[in-house]
């Protein structure tokens, strides 16, 4: 018989797992990792910065995408991938970053999907599904940390220098500033480890004595605060 068990701690863990996976995925796909120096579509970078007539804007550069304003476009800033193939990503460090972030996000998305069904299934192959998911989230967090540590090492690439000036170097962003996607990825990494730790609380909540008493009474829907 399937028992639907809902507790505050298990639901909170499920919601955090989904939000974390979604946030990391959005950050990875975003072009707002680096925000370039102000320029115009015809800007020329000189010793004193970008110089050109017209309205200035700040281009953005992601791991595999970018947003720029082209002179012949009147509809605004054009966003899209600059790398069509994996080998076209700006640097080897960013390629490694892509691999680690993609692996971490894949695990987070798998856990987020599984977490929805933990209300009905609390174990798999006699192992607590919460503990298994917590372990996967911990591994995903390690992948995300590796990716974020390698990401600034690619700032010395030619692609980054086009956006951040010739002073850009590994772990030095030059004239660029960090975009919201980078901070979102960092926040998502912190939440990933919080979810990994909190999974143990979700396990405790769904296997407590109160839950067992409700099951023995024959209830199929169990809701506890």
Please tell me about this protein's structure:
About 2% of the residues have low confidence. It is built from 6 helices and 11 strands. The protein has 225 residues and is an alpha+beta fold. The chain has one domain: Butyryl-CoA Dehydrogenase, subunit A, domain 3 (Up-down Bundle), CATH 1.20.140. The longest helix has 27 residues.
What are the key terms here?
225 residues, alpha+beta, Butyryl-CoA Dehydrogenase, subunit A, domain 3, two-stranded parallel sheet, 11 strands, elongated, LHFPL, LHFPL tetraspan subfamily member 2a protein, transmembrane, fertilization, membrane
Short description:
The protein is α+β, with helices and mostly antiparallel strands and 225 residues long.
Tally the beta strands.
Answer: 11
How are the strands ordered across the major sheet?
7-6-5-2-10
**Secondary-structure element series:** EHEEEEEEHEEHHEHHE
Main beta-sheet annotation: 5 strands, antiparallel
Structural class: alpha+beta
CATH architecture identity: Up-down Bundle
Q: What is the name of the CATH class? A: Mainly Alpha
Mean pLDDT: 85
Helix content: 40-55%
Q: Total number of helical segments? A: 6
- Oligomeric state as shown: single chain
Low-pLDDT residue spans: 44-48
Furnish the topology, listing elements before pairings.
Elements: E1 4-7, H1 8-29, E2 34-35, E3 44-46, E4 49-51, E5 60-61, E6 65-68, E7 78-81, H2 92-116, E8 123-124, E9 127-128, H3 129-150, H4 158-164, E10 177-178, H5 180-206, H6 209-216, E11 221-224
Parallel strand pairs: 1-11
Antiparallel strand pairs: 2-5, 2-10, 3-4, 5-6, 6-7, 8-9
Helix pairs in contact: 1-2, 1-5, 2-3, 3-5
Keywords: Fertilization, Membrane, Transmembrane, Transmembrane helix
Subcellular location: Membrane
GO cellular component, one term: membrane
């Amino acid at each position: 018989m399937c028992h639907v068990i809902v507790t505050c701690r298990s639901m909170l863990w499920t919601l955090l797992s989904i939000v974390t996976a979604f946030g990391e995925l959005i950050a990875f796909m975003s072009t707002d990792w680096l925000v370039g120096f102000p320029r115009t579509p015809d800007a020329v970078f000189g010793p004193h910065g970008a110089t050109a007539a017209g309205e200035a804007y700040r281009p953005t550069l992601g791991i595999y995408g970018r947003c720029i304003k082209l002179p012949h476009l009147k509809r605004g800033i054009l966003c899209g991938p600059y790398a069509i193939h994996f080998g076209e990503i700006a640097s080897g460090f960013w390629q490694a970053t892509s691999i680690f972030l993609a692996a971490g996000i894949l695990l987070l998305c798998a856990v987020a999907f599984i977490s929805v069904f933990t209300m009905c299934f609390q174990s798999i192959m006699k192992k607590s599904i919460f503990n298994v998911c917590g372990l996967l989230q911990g591994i995903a967090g390690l992948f995300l940390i590796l990716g974020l540590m390698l990401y600034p090492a690619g700032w010395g690439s030619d692609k980054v220098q086009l956006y951040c000036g010739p002073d850009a170097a590994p772990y030095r962003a030059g004239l660029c500033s960090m975009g919201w996607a980078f901070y979102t990825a960092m926040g998502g990494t912190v939440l990933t480890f919080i979810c990994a730790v909190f999974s143990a609380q979700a396990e405790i909540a769904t296997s407590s004595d109160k839950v067992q008493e409700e099951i023995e009474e024959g209830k199929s829907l169990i809701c506890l605060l």
